[in-house]
Design goal:
The complex is a heterodimer of chains A (584) and B (303). Chain A has 584 residues and is α/β, with parallel strands linked by helices. Chain A is built from 19 helices and 16 strands. Chain B contains ten helices and 16 strands. Classes of the chains: A alpha/beta (584), B alpha+beta (303).
Amino acid sequence: MGTNNEQYIGKVPVANTGPLNAKLWVVGEAPGEDEEAAGEPFVGVSGQLLRSLLLENGVSFDDVRRCNLSMFRPFNNKFGYLQGSRQLAQSQEILKNEILKNRPICIIALGTEATEYLTGRRDVANIRGSVLPCSFDFNIKVLVARHPAFVLRTPAEYPVFSIDIAHAVAESKTRESIRKKRTFIINPKGYQLEDIRQDYSSQPKLACDIESARGKDGTIYCIGFAKSPTHSVSLNLFDSQQAKVAFQLLENEQIEKIFHFGTFDYLKLAINGIPVNNYKHDTYLGQHVLNPEFARTLAFLVSTYTNEPAYKTDGRATIPDDIKAWNLKTTKLEDLLLYNCKDCCYTFEVHEIQLAELAERGLTHIYEEEIDQLEMAHHISLAGMCVDLERRDLFAAALKHKWDTIQFMLDVSVGRPFNCNSPPQCRKLLYKEYGLPVRRNKGQGITTDEDACVSLHTYCMKKVDESKKQETKNQWLRRALVIKSILAIRGLRKLLGTYILCDISDDGRIRSTYKVGGTETGRYAANSFIDDTGTNSQTFPRASIDIPKAWGLKVPSNAAVDKIAFAKQIELLGEEEEEEEAVA
Amino acid sequence: MTVISSADKLKLRSMFIPAPGKLFVACDFSQAETWIVAHLAFEDRMKKALMFGDIHTQTAASAIFFPLVKCETDHAKWNKLPNGDRACPSCGVTITEIMRYLGKRFNHAKSYRMGDERAAEVINADSDQPPYVTITTAQAREYGSNWLSYYQLAGWWRRIEDQLRATRTLRTTYGRERIFFDDLYKNGKLNAELAKEATAYEPQSTVADHANGVVHPELGVEGGFKTVYRKIVKPSHGGIKAVNVAHDSMMLEVPKEQANEIGLEVVSILKRPLVVNGEMFTIPVDLEIGERWGELEKIKLAA
């Protein structure tokens, strides 16, 4: 797709419509079939969705200026056909002139293309809900939202889209920023630190957050506190005076602490010998009780509960916010402290709104129950379980022995060395050579994942039942066995890598991080411990393992598993897998 | 030192051991989700089997394999035979270990509206583990159809569908709420995946809250894992540790000499009433004690 796509671009222009002096504008990508027929933007189902949501917020569609980046419809509604075309360039020129001349207060950028044109950013998934300055005129606000067509295809996005539209309507009321004015204090020293200590020690509630490096020896760099949604401080733990104040505040039993997914912070502090008292609120749990279907990250909460723009990816790698992988080699300490201050203020703001919403919906008691369970969850996370190392080594050797045996049989059956974790090899064997019906994943890509293999195995067994000739029966049975072997080897690999050979803490125990509010139902979730050792004990398999009788429950020297060599082997197999997933 | 009964077959979980001088004490709610399903669906046969018999054996006999056999006592009692089979002294029906296993798998699959083909798939996927069973799709269809004729869950499922259509919201007896945002309809019909997820929600969530220790708003009775922690673990100042919680089970590491006593105390804390659809009942709790996870010994408890 590119500049020579005249035949793929509609001939009938669909002009922007609605009052030029409107305070609120919407900008989409290009007209669709309905729009082209009517000669007016946003008359199809996407437009209807937008119209109804604006109306819910007291704004008539007729009072909104409705525009598209392109006035011409691309073939099959694929925006790519317009890229580099003169039609797109002309339409954008008209739009830009209209915007600069009429200076609306707020423009809703619908989808990636409009967002990029108006703000220069394409990462809508990260910045939706944010109000950003317009690239042409910094005094025009641009609210980034998903495209309504995407929302119609993904109904779970509807509530979030609805929040974003309400936010845009609020923003369009005034040219002034409606963001709260906040005070962030970083790295306070001397009298300023003492003032902070006195002020913050007398508060009934403090929002808290730590920033740290990842891993077993992950350093805690700073601890932030907010006394309100608009005032926070980040204390640098490399400064002993600041560290002292931070620890005093955390330990203070009179002050209620508010965290966002404080399980991470609490455990991280606990393994560093820093106690936290009166941990009374958690916005992660607030979200879990109020909206279990939605994301629970602080970034998401900030985008739906506050008027703040996205900030989580500023100055750091794009990572989920509870992984906590700061690295001071790549991030300036000041940036980190500022980020820490923001987290604390926003957590406080979200917390206050959540408390009101919990009360309004009669869910306060469930929230309080979850908070009440945190102490036990933290205790279990820190307790861990002792490992009988001799038996673990026995299991590792037995599983590896089993793997080698099945692998040998599989290679013989297939007629060549076969890597079960290579999707292209699996696809070639199952779909090309065996001609089995292709299985697809939710994204409609061809897959040979576990579900697909289970389903293909059932298919083969059905064929075994249906076949009349013994030869045909045998052929299907052989295929079923090959699939079963693929599943078995993948299972063994996971069993060894995830459970049996996981890293053990220095005290000989395997730990997990237990997360209250980890699932929609209220069950706890668990994963490896916060220092990246351990595994998910909740899902540790109940299965039994056959130990070769000749071993007499002792690992023969030639069967011992070299953990490092094994990890390398898994890594090599995994690389191919990832590469292929990307291709798929 | 644990005596290994079979020299060549060991449970993977047995690599976990308590600290020296300690034992593992594990408690779990028995058939917890089935108890909730039975009460949500007003399913009297299921309730009766849960209260007086063995639900999986009962399902295998009455719902799946011998639906036409009329038993005067409705299989009120099962005698365990030396080979592990179970026999009804009243009508003579015998249920093998494999039949019972299939009864169990269909209880789990059909309560939450799993399709027959999928049920066959998941059972066959586990066929490399005891009791090494595979079934055909035709068999799964037959068993599934028999199951649905015996247990009457359609009314409950309809109520869930009505609720989804009306408000998209389900609220459990403990007061937990969930709004389902996915497509209500697909190809003109109620979205089957959504219906399945919603069906599983109430039993799973109710069991989670009951086990974790949420206080029922009507009953106000404390209990659950949270109370075990507060009453037994915390006051011990490290002498007793809670080492695992998974769904409806909890495991503690306790001093050897106190294992039985603590086990019974945990059971008494976990056994507390709850109310579903206006009916109060108590889910039984099983207790196991031992030196290795996966090789714990079941303790017989007085009813």
